[in-house]
UniProtKB/TrEMBL annotation:
The gene is nnrE. Residues 10-209 form the YjeF N-terminal domain. Residues 214-493 form the YjeF C-terminal domain. Its EC number is 4.2.1.136, 5.1.99.6. It catalyses: (6R)-NADPHX = (6S)-NADPHX; (6S)-NADPHX + ADP = AMP + phosphate + NADPH + H(+); (6R)-NADHX = (6S)-NADHX; (6S)-NADHX + ADP = AMP + phosphate + NADH + H(+). GO terms for molecular function: ADP-dependent NAD(P)H-hydrate dehydratase activity; ATP binding; kinase activity; metal ion binding; NAD(P)HX epimerase activity. CDD domains: YXKO-related (cd01171). Binds 1 potassium ion per subunit. This is Bifunctional NAD(P)H-hydrate repair enzyme. Homotetramer. Its cofactor is K(+); Mg(2+). HAMAP family: NADHX_dehydratase, NADHX_epimerase.
Amino acid sequence: MRYAHEVGKVRAAEQALMARLPEGTLMQRAAAGLAAVCCRLLPRVYGAHVVLLVGGGDNGGDALYAGARLARRGARVEAVLAGSKAHPQGLAALREAGGRVLPADRAEPAVRHADLVIDGLTGIGGTGALREPYAALARLTEDTDAIVVACDVPSGVDAGTGRVDGAAVRADVTVTFGTCKPGLLIDPGAARCGTVELIDIGLGADLPDPDVVAVWPEDLHIPLPSPESDKYRRGVVGIVAGSERYTGAAVLCVGGAVRGGAGMVRFASVPRPVELVRQRWPEAVTTIIERTPAALEKVGRVQAWVVGPGLGTDRGAEALVEAVLRTELPVLVDADGLTVLARRRDLLRRQAPTVLTPHAGELARLLGRDARREEIEARRLEHVRRAAAELSATVLLKGSTTLIAEQDRPVRVNPTGTPWLATAGTGDVLSGLIGALLAGGMTALEAATAGAYLHGLAGRLAASAAGSGARTGQAPIGAHDVVTALPDAFRTLS
Ligand SMILES: NC(=O)C1=CN([C@@H]2O[C@H](COP(=O)(O)OP(=O)(O)OC[C@H]3O[C@@H](n4cnc5c(N)ncnc54)[C@H](OP(=O)(O)O)[C@@H]3O)[C@@H](O)[C@H]2O)[C@@H](O)CC1
Ligand SMILES: Nc1ncnc2c1ncn2[C@@H]1O[C@H](COP(=O)(O)OP(=O)(O)O)[C@@H](O)[C@H]1O
Ligand SMILES: [K+]
């Protein structure tokens, strides 16, 4: 897992470490690491043209010292100063090494023609939208052939949240110090980082437990069938989805569960979705139910439930959501089920695990009051955490960078996925898949994590046209393609 710490904790750890070291040691460590990465990225350091974008704080100091190191190795280093002040010792070091300061009006051609640009405008001290001239300098990085290396954080990205409010640097590589920052792992900030390289500056012992962790495949412990397995031991998942009006969601959800490794899928709904599920997934055991509180009595035993996709939001849907949540089994609530829950949050008072899989709009409804969809998209980390605490559930927030939160645990960031997944019905596949993993005995957090990982990977595999010779090798996909690609996604793990 890759770990990230909140900015306040990074600063506290830095303070504690700095108190034990000679002044300036940490900045030298950071600058040495940054310069080493730049040397690796450049085909030749000697004679390379390097431009530094330098803000008024220590982030600019790192860039200046790194520039001095590159200048000493023969690079032609030019610095553009964004503020009225710049780190004085860093500036002196650059000049002493043969680097020079460019006037502001030379910044644009310099960045455009450079071999490498170091962004040292703002780091963890950046607050709010970049002001001028920082913003104009950050925009220059969007239109250059130079390799853009962000120092600690791409300027314009909020290090704590990943929020981007206006102009921001678009980096090929982000060299971050001591520990990752949440904004480097969470979109929209993560999309600005390129590859993230972590430089050890010795903070380790002073850092507390991480606030955010990115999931790695070796963290996923998906149970595999053994010789003693039978369909009941592998897990029976019950799916309550679909309505006379919406049928596709049910078919996709069942598909996600079948391909997600359930020993058996029991599907319960009204006649039309039952008929369609039977046609598409003869493996599923179907039951026609009425939309009443007693509906589940006919369904048979399961180990976990999924409720919500295509269910509608009327009184009948509410009766079904209530019936499922009144069981003492793990339950995943998705889609229309979440809309029902927004007016019946009392149903979340239960002992067994509950997994909620909202997108930002659904989470806004669930949190109510002041929550707005756009705010949630912009500050995903804060909202997913708040949701897990207020709703006493495992919350998986979908969208660009899926986050998974449980109270008092680090938030998990899913590294797989592709914007091609932003198409109707892919969420239904995810809920069926996680339901199957829950029924197989994984904890709510494990099942949500593994489900998000496999789903994102299946999306990528489905979207990439291997061997097609196409330029990007990617193509649009439908939700059923994600279902089809799930076995290949599982195969990458075994
Ligand atoms: N501490 C340590 O031990 C170590 C720290 N290290 C490094 O220090 C970095 C943190 O340095 P920091 O605290 O000086 O803040 P920093 O990121 O340079 O930003 C402040 C500057 O940005 C400006 N500014 C802010 N917002 C702005 C906006 N919206 N628009 C425009 N300008 C804006 C702000 O201007 P002001 O508001 O003061 O006018 C000020 O000039 C950290 O990321 C890492 O790289 C490493 O060397 C390792 C050891
Ligand atoms: N921009 C994006 N980048 C990556 N994944 C995305 C993006 N937008 C949506 N997704 C993923 O696509 C799926 C869409 O789910 P959802 O919004 O529930 O759609 P539906 O309800 O139509 O099935 C989720 O897994 C989500 O994480
Ligand atoms: K920066």
